[in-house]
Design goal:
single chain, mainly alpha, 2 domains, rod-shaped
C-alpha cells in the first residue's frame, strides 16, 4: 500500500487550484464572448473568440500528455501511458550515452574533488554523528535482528575447533618447559613446591586424623586411628623433608622422572599427540561448548544494552570519534586524497562506464515495469501545476492575437475603402 505524505497532499491541492484558475480564465473568456455578441462589440468578440480557441487548444494539449481528453481515445493522446516503453528506452539510452561519458565525467570529478570534500564533511562533528547514528542506531541493530544466533554460535564453534586443532600444543608445552632443564630453575621450583606441600600437610593434620578415624574400626575406641594418623603424617613429612634435599635418593628419583617427562615432551611425537588430544578433548566437553556458546550471547547482550542508550551509547560515540578522526587525518594527507580521487576517477569510473549499457537497460526495464496510469498520475502531480500556466498563457495570448488580427483586418478595410 502506497503511503500518502503531507507533501503529496500539498501537491494535489496546488494542482487542483491551478486547474481551477485556468478553467476560470477560460470561463471568463466565454462570458466576454456572450457579452460581445449580445452588445455587438466586435473588438471584444475578436478577443474572446481567440482566447477561447487558445485556452481550449492548450487544455487539449496538456491533457493529451496524461490521458485521453474527455475519455475519447483520440489518436496521439494519452502520450505518457501509451508511450511509456518507448520513453523508458529513450531515457535509458539518453542517460547511458549523454551522462555516462568519460570526458564529461572526468571534468566534473576534477572540479568536485571528492577526496577533499569528503574529508571536510567527515571532519565535522555534526556529520560524523549523522553517520554514527546510521551505523549504531540503525545498521548494527538491523544486523543483530537479521542474523540467526544459532548460525553465529555454530560458526564460533567451528572456528574455535579448527584453530584449536591447528595448534601444536605439544610444541608449546615443550617450549614452555625447556627452561626447566637449564640451570637451577627446575630445582628451585621443585623445592618451593615441596615446601608448600609440607606446609599444607602440617596445616591439615586434623583433617587427616578425621579422615583416618572415619576409616578405622569402631571398636578400636580411637586408639588405632591416632597411631595410624601419626604414622601417615610422619611418613609423609619425612618423605617431603627428604625430597627437599637435592642429594637424597628421593629427590634424585623425582628429578629423573621430571627430566624423562621433559625429554619425552620435547622429543617424542607420541607424547605431543597425547597432549594435543588431551587439550582438544577437554575443549569438546559440554561445559566448554556451553561456555563458547555463551560468548556470543554475552557479546550480543552487551552491544544491545549499549545501543539502547541512544546518543549516550559508547559504541556510537566511538564510531563518531573514529569517523571524525579519519576526516581530520584525511585533510592532512594529500597523498591519500589524491589516491581517493584517482580511485574514483579511474577505477570506479571505469566500472561505471563499462556497465553503462547495463545501467541504461536497467533504467529502461524499470520504466517499462511501471503501471502506465500510475506513471501518468505521478508525473502530472509533479509537473501538472506548471503546465496549467500553458493553458492560462494560451487563453491570454490567444485573446491578444485575436485583437491583433482584428486590428489588422480593420486597418485593411480602412485603407481599401
Amino acid at each position: 500500500m502506497e503511503i500518502i505524505t503531507d507533501q503529496d497532499i500539498a501537491k494535489v491541492k496546488a494542482l487542483k487550484k491551478m486547474k481551477r484558475n485556468a478553467l476560470a480564465l477560460l470561463g471568463f473568456a466565454v462570458l466576454l464572448f456572450i457579452i460581445a455578441i449580445y452588445f455587438k462589440i466586435p473588438m471584444l468578440q475578436a478577443f474572446s473568440e481567440a482566447a477561447m480557441v487558445g485556452g481550449i487548444a492548450d487544455w487539449f494539449a496538456v491533457v493529451a500528455l496524461f490521458r485521453h481528453p474527455m475519455g475519447i481515445p483520440i489518436w496521439h493522446t494519452a502520450i505518457i501511458p501509451t508511450k511509456k516503453n518507448e520513453i523508458g528506452e529513450n531515457l535509458g539510452n539518453f542517460v547511458s550515452e549523454e551522462f555516462l561519458n568519460r570526458e564529461k565525467l572526468e571534468v566534473k570529478l576534477d572540479e568536485f574533488n571528492f577526496g577533499t570534500k569528503a574529508s571536510d564533511w567527515l571532519s565535522q562533528e555534526e556529520n560524523a554523528n549523522k553517520v554514527a547514528d546510521v551505523i549504531a542506531l540503525n545498521l548494527i541493530p538491523g544486523i543483530l535482528k537479521t542474523i540467526k544466533d544459532e548460525d553465529i554460535k555454530r560458526f564460533i564453534q567451528v572456528q574455535f575447533k579448527e584453530k584449536l586443532e591447528a595448534i601444536n600444543f605439544g610444541d608449546w608445552v615443550a617450549l614452555a618447559l625447556e627452561p626447566l632443564q637449564k640451570g637451577n630453575v627446575k630445582d628451585q621450583l621443585l623445592t618451593n613446591l615441596l615446601e608448600v606441600m609440607s606446609a599444607e600437610l602440617s596445616n591439615n593434620k586434623d583433617l587427616i586424623r578425621k579422615k583416618v578415624k572415619q576409616s578405622t574400626p569402631f571398636l578400636s575406641f580411637g586408639l588405632a586411628d591416632k597411631s595410624i594418623t601419626e604414622g601417615i603424617f610422619n611418613g609423609l613429612q619425612e618423605f617431603l623433608d627428604e625430597a627437599k634435599n637435592p642429594e637424597s635418593a628421593v629427590r634424585i628419583k623425582i628429578d629423573e622422572y621430571i627430566s624423562d617427562f621433559l625429554n619425552k615432551v620435547k622429543n617424542s611425537e607420541e607424547m605431543r599427540i597425547k597432549i594435543n588430544n588431551l587439550i582438544v578433548g577437554f575443549a569438546g566437553k559440554k561445559e566448554v561448548q556451553d561456555y563458547i556458546n555463551g560468548i556470543w550471547d554475552e557479546i550480543k547482550l552487551s552491544i544491545t544494552n549499549d545501543l539502547e542508550k541512544g546518543r549516550e551509547s559508547s559504541i556510537r560515540k566511538n564510531i563518531s570519534g573514529l569517523i571524525q578522526n579519519f576526516g581530520n587525518g584525511l585533510k592532512e594527507d594529500a597523498v591519500m586524497v589524491d589516491k581517493i580521487n584517482n580511485f574514483i576517477k579511474n577505477d570506479l569510473l571505469s566500472v561505471l562506464l563499462n556497465n553503462k549499457k547495463v545501467i541504461g537497460d536497467l533504467i529502461s526495464s524499470t520504466v517499462k515495469s511501471w503501471d502506465g496510469k500510475e506513471v501518468s498520475e505521478k508525473l502530472e502531480l509533479e509537473i501538472g501545476k506548471d503546465l496549467q500556466y500553458i493553458r492560462i498563457n494560451g487563453t491570454l495570448v490567444g485573446g491578444f492575437i485575436g485583437l491583433v488580427i482584428y486590428g489588422v483586418e480593420q486597418l485593411y478595410h480602412l485603407i481599401l475603402f
